[in-house]
# Entry
Amino acid sequence: MDIISQRTTVLDDLYTRYSCRLLAAVTERLVAVGPTAIVLDEDVTQDVWTYLAEHGLPWARTSLEALLEIADRMVGRVRRDQARQQEFPAGLTRTIPTSPTDRTSNGRAAIVLPARVSDAVTALAALPLAG
# Structure
């Protein structure tokens, strides 16, 4: 018996039956991750099919549940990557008094200055300590 052709037949059959449902399920799961993750729906779905081609079905199952388990793992990777890529501001915001002629709601204007170590240390030193 040719195992490779059998695996290809199973993969073709699964793709024919479940490709649209898998894409929809992956998209729903990525919506929960965040708005920037939604654009990865086709990539994650392709990763599921690639994993399936390389490793076969887990527990020799041939159903949508097995595909969704693999998809959950792939979405988990996206979730971890999104958590690692948090953005940090490049500058510090300071408020300075404005002239009486151009007042804002609180009489102060915010300007963004380039971040420097001394500014960061000053900002941290100004924070009240919990005690």
